[in-house]
């Protein structure tokens, strides 16, 4: 830190920076306390100092945990958290170093580093600690032994050091050079000249060295040559501190004023990608220290000399409410440091006191710390006394020396015999699927045990379950061994088994016998499939999202609308949200919230899925609300208006989900502050002490919900009347109830799980008493009863015992707004409705009834790492569109598995394996309040000419002619289509023991080029779309041999192609599908799957199936073109224009040979000749000098005859 421009009272603490001044103590310090040796026993006792006691720590909020005295009266000059052990190092102005162990700050070691100079910087290494003073670098063991002592020139005035690697060190100070020192040889290896004298702070990233100068500048230097690459003139006076994180550089310092230097309350922030300053950040304290604390966000900690600390986002606005105060013993803070784990902050003041602030009661300084070595205690004093009168006293308590002689406890070989353990039985799943070849059996690995390991168990009853699977990611059920509770088959994680044909021979109908569409789970971050289904089956949300269209490239609302359109078109076939998840991965907020999982974490189940989906739920509602608030006519998609739902003030997402409320803060002085706010969802807040109350106290869900909505809590807040932070009582009053009530359950620990379990048991006992002898043990339904499940008539049937178990959640709740802005909540049953009448009549009096519409649950399965499923009550409108019937039914949605269930199953939560995560309640008669008409926002103007994203594209490179207004396609028009792809992630496969290949995860493809060719008219065969798709994701293989795509074709900076966004081209194809054109191509099924389009089967003319015989191989486009059209295509690479034209010509040939489909027998003879020729030539097209044209072959005579 630059001491030169700090408070004038601190000038004497850094005499090296004021060479012209003699060191003089501050008047408020006692000179007798400033010494370089340990305290005299008769001096001031440490207990006599007014050190603040530790306080209760709130999780996630920094509070003071401990304060200790390093050296009485001697200012702390530097503090440093050890990077290898749980230790905090402190250096003083008297050259004394002290270390403290653990969060309790127990004194570990204390020794003198320098007799006269202060310690400027401390750096921890694996074997010791580096101490930098004015002209001395000392490397000492953690116990105080000197490893080496490197003396610098007496004229040097060093201030900072930087460890560039494990054995290289940079040292800089108030001179025009920086020294590079090799720690292995303890010699100076390089001296770098510095243009601006005075480097007081140094930082390093993977791109630059950052050097802070006394003149207020920050220079960026090359990692290899140390040459200046860029320079920022941050402050006109001097630099106080700076820090670097990611692509941001934040600085604080002093500006020149007429009266001298003044602390600048504006932090200068720079974007390292564009190398320019962004909006300065105004803070409410005088910044002296600055550190990034990147936890869930890239927040900054700004510290002032007087002890004020403020947290804020580097690109946001600073909030005065985010300020907390450190209470130093001395008048000023001298040093500040942050631990590697970001859980602890250390402050040192001018009276030698160290303050430790943490965000948890038991913090750790490092993510992975090694064990600290302590001095061994005396073994004689620590040995327990032995009572020889005890017959069962273990003799192993007596320490004995290591010996090679035979011990008395060694059994002779004659008295012992080896008894091998009996091998455990073979898994029943292996025996069921095993195929025998001779005397050897082969079976797929059921993945219930570790590879190449057979665990032994002492209890035979354990053999049914696998206790060696990974621990579930949720804390719920860890102590109860969740693998002992069998997960129902339909709730288990479903996976797609791939064959050499990919997905073509996978039977999705086995998992889904309905006409609703499931979602495929193999895409990265597909854990949110269940929540996508929940949003889709909310009719107002479905219509609203499909009416939305905007000009943003990555708009989640647009992509969700495209996905909902696919779900509407599907007749039971699964869809995939690849484009939606692609846009989701580009949202910075999603990454900051930790919603984007790595492939390894998702496959191994390391992520906490319950917390993850609840954060995702809050994120998606907020994001959709923001996307739909702006109602402006998009310019990129001409004529595509905004949603008819939206108003200028608020989005319909806000109208549906938002709950308006007043937050009241009452100070103990009597001052009350009221703020209006809104929220899109609520989080359940459980009663205090619910885990300790084992008496089985009944607590309705409605009571817990009311407590969570009308939340009352005590907290510290700023009071304008008192002009300081005061304990306040904060309450929430509801002004307007939402139409859709969204609840995050927050069952993230055993405490909440035990509460649900206990309340379900109490509710079960009450239900048994209420129904008496009407309850049957088992309940079987006839076919007529099964059809009535979920209907109002079916609800009145008498429940069985199994239906009442594990049920605490009501199907309906009744809410009433009182005159004094209070809220009454109660459980609502069908009997209540018969007693009080329909709920619609009471809405005029502020009474509303909410029905349960969906529950999202977390399945704890140790075999697979867990999964997320949804129970959804599908409404009448969806059944009317899909099945032509009008009724309601509960369904289980488990990715692509969809199955009707009994309504009681949606509210039954066995906390051993089925944990609630999210609840959706909707108002009665919700659909009648909204306009549910869908108007397609995509218009013909999307097909007109558009600008390319590529900077170097020229008109001479144009490969297509856009459609004119008089060429707009009509229903039934032919369009030749072909697409080319690149690979984002390679395929993951394993080789089975029988030699066959099994695909674990298919390769992830991305569309790179889409071509559409006119199929009729004077310009037949001329492309009207030839778009190269820009991608921001890393491409691992361009597949140039098969796609013709070369590196650089998709880069807007260097590409010469017509480059556009995937959304722009997607809209063109969607318009063609909606208008009713017929697509002609070869292998279109894969093309549409990767593009993520659902095309009706009657609009697809695929030549791969037109020229195919049942139970025969598929024939390549190249061979068909050579055989029927005498064309040689796909020579070196593929070209999508050529392939699309060829497919159109082949379709014309098909119509010619089959007489427009009227002579199938004659065309069958043509196909037989095609397959005979293919087998003879091994399906390879001859080279130009090879065989003659197929028209001259005898096998083609039948074709000529036709």
TrEMBL record:
One of its GO terms (cellular component) is nucleus. Its main location: cytoplasm. A divalent metal cation binds at residues 978, 980, 1087, 1139. It is found in: Cytoplasm, P-body; Nucleus. Positively regulated by the regulatory subunit PAN3. One of its GO terms (biological process) is positive regulation of cytoplasmic mRNA processing body assembly. Signal peptide: none annotated. GO terms for molecular function: metal ion binding; nucleic acid binding; poly(A)-specific ribonuclease activity. Catalytic subunit of the poly(A)-nuclease (PAN) deadenylation complex, one of two cytoplasmic mRNA deadenylases involved in general and miRNA-mediated mRNA turnover. PAN specifically shortens poly(A) tails of RNA and the activity is stimulated by poly(A)-binding protein (PABP). PAN deadenylation is followed by rapid degradation of the shortened mRNA tails by the CCR4-NOT complex. This is PAN2-PAN3 deadenylation complex catalytic subunit PAN2. It comes from Phocoena sinus. The lineage of its organism: Eukaryota, Metazoa, Chordata, Craniata, Vertebrata.
């Amino acid at each position: 830190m630059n001491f030169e421009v700090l408070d004038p009272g601190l000038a004497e603490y850094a005499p090296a920076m004021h060479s012209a001044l003699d060191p003089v103590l501050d008047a408020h310090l006692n000179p007798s306390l400033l010494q370089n040796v340990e305290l005299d026993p008769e001096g001031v006792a440490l207990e006599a100092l007014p050190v603040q006691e530790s306080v209760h720590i709130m999780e996630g909020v920094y509070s003071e945990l401990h304060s200790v005295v390093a050296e009485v009266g001697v200012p702390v000059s530097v503090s440093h958290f050890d990077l290898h052990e749980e230790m905090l190092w402190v250096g003083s102005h008297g050259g004394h170093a002290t270390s403290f162990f653990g969060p309790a700050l127990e004194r570990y070691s204390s020794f003198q580093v320098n007799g006269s100079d202060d310690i400027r910087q401390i750096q921890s290494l694996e074997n010791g600690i580096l101490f930098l003073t004015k002209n001395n670098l000392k490397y000492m063991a953690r116990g105080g032994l000197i490893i080496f002592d490197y003396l610098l020139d007496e004229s040097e005035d060093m201030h900072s050091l930087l460890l560039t690697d494990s054995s290289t060190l940079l040292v800089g100070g108030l001179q025009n050079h920086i020294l590079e020192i090799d720690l292995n040889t303890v010699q100076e290896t390089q001296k770098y000249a510095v243009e601006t004298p005075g480097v007081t702070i140094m930082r390093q990233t993977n791109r630059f060295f950052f050097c802070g100068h006394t003149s207020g500048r920050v220079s960026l230097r090359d990692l290899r040559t140390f040459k200046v690459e860029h320079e920022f003139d941050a402050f006109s006076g001097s630099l106080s501190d700076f820090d670097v994180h990611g692509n941001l550089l934040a600085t604080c310092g002093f500006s020149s004023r007429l009266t001298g230097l003044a602390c600048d309350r504006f932090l200068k922030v720079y974007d390292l990608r564009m190398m320019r300053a962004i909006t300065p950040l105004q803070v409410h304290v005088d910044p002296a220290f600055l550190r990034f604390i990147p936890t869930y966000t890239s927040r900054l900690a700004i510290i002032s000399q007087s002890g004020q600390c403020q947290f804020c986002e580097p690109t946001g606005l600073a909030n005065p409410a985010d300020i907390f105060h450190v209470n130093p013993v001395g008048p000023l803070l001298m040093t500040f440091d942050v631990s590697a784990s970001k859980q602890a902050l250390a402050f040192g003041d001018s009276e030698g006191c160290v303050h430790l602030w943490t965000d948890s009661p038991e913090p750790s300084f490092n993510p992975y710390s090694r064990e600290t070595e302590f001095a061994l205690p005396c073994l004689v004093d620590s040995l327990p006394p032995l009572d020889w009168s005890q017959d069962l006293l273990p003799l192993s308590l007596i320490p004995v020396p290591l010996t090679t002689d035979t011990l008395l406890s060694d059994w002779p070989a004659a008295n012992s015999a080896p008894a091998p353990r009996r091998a455990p039985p073979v898994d029943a799943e292996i025996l069921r699927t095993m195929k025998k070849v001779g005397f050897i059996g082969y079976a797929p690995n059921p993945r219930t045990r570790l590879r190449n390991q057979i665990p032994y168990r002492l209890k035979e009853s354990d053999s049914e379950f696998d206790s060696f699977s990974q621990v579930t990611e949720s804390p719920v059920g860890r102590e109860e061994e969740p693998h002992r509770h069998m997960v129902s088959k339909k709730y288990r994680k479903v996976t797609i088994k791939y064959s050499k044909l990919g997905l073509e021979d996978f039977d999705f109908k086995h998992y889904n016998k309905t006409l609703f569409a499931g979602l495929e789970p193999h895409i990265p971050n597909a854990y949110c499939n269940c929540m996508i289904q929940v949003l889709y089956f909310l009719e107002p949300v479905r219509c609203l999202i499909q009416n939305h269209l905007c000009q943003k490239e990555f708009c989640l609302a647009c992509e969700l609308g495209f996905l909902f359109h696919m779900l509407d078109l599907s007749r039971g076939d699964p869809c995939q949200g690849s484009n939606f998840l692609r846009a989701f991965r580009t949202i910075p907020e999603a990454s900051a919230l930790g919603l984007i999982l790595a492939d390894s974490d998702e496959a191994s189940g390391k992520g906490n899925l319950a917390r993850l989906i609840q954060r995702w739920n809050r994120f998606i509602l907020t994001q959709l609300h923001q996307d739909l608030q702006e109602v402006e006519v998009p310019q990129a998609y001409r004529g595509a208006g905004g949603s008819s739902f939206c108003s200028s003030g608020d989005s319909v997402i806000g109208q549906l989900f938002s709950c308006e409320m007043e937050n009241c803060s009452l100070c103990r002085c009597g001052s009350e502050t009221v703020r209006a706010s809104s929220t899109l969802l609520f989080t359940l807040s459980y009663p205090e002490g619910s885990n300790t109350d084992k008496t089985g106290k009944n607590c309705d869900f409605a009571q817990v919900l009311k407590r969570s909505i009308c939340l009352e809590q005590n907290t510290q807040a700023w009071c304008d009347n008192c002009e300081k932070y005061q304990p306040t009582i904060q309450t929430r009053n509801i002004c307007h109830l939402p139409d859709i009530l969204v609840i995050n359950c927050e069952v993230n620990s055993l405490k909440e799980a035990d509460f649900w379990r206990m309340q379900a048991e109490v509710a079960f006992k009450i239900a048994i008493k209420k129904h008496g002898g009407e309850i049957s043990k088992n309940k079987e339904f006839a076919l007529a009863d099964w059809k009535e499940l979920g209907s109002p008539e079916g609800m009145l049937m008498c429940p069985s015992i199994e239906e009442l178990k594990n049920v605490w959640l009501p199907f309906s709740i009744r809410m009433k707004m009182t005159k004094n802005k209070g809220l009454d909540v109660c459980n609502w049953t069908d009997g209540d409705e018969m007693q009080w009448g329909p709920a619609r009549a009471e809405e005029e009096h502020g009474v509303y009834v909410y029905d349960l519409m969906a529950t999202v649950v977390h399945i704890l399965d140790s075999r697979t790492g867990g999964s997320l499923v949804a129970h959804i009550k599908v409404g009448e409108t969806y059944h009317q569109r899909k099945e032509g019937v009008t009724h309601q039914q509960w369904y289980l949605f488990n990715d692509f598995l969809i199955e009707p269930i009994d309504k009681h199953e949606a509210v039954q939560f066995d906390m051993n394996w089925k944990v609630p995560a999210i609840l959706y309640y909707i108002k009665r008669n919700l659909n009648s309040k909204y306009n549910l008409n869908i108007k397609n926002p995509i218009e013909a103007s999307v097909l007109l000419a558009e600008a390319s994203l590529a900077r170097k594209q020229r008109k001479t490179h144009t490969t297509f002619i856009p459609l004119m207004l008089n060429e707009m396609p009509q229903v039934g028009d032919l369009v030749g289509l072909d697409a080319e792809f690149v690979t984002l992630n390679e395929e993951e496969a394993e080789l089975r023991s029988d030699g066959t290949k099994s695909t674990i995860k298919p390769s992830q493809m991305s569309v790179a080029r889409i071509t559409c060719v006119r199929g009729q008219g004077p310009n037949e065969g001329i492309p009207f779309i030839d778009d190269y798709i820009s991608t921001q994701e890393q491409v691992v293989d361009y597949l140039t041999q098969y796609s013709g795509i070369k590196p650089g074709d998709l880069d807007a900076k260097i590409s010469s192609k017509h480059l556009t966004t995937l959304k722009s081209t997607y809209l063109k194809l969607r318009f063609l599908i909606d208008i009713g054109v017929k697509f002609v191509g070869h292998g279109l099924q894969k093309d549409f799957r990767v593009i993520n389009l659902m095309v009706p089967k009657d609009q697809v003319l695929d030549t791969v199936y037109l020229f195919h015989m049942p139970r025969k191989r598929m024939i390549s486009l190249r061979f068909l073109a050579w055989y029927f059209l005498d064309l040689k295509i796909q020579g070196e690479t593929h070209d999508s224009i050529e392939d699309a034209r060829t497919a159109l010509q082949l379709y014309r040939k098909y119509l010619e040979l089959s007489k427009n489909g009227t002579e199938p027998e004659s065309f069958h003879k043509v196909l037989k000749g095609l397959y005979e020729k293919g087998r003879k030539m091994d399906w390879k097209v001859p080279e130009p000098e090879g065989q003659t044209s197929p028209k001259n072959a005898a096998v083609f005579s039948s074709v000529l005859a036709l």
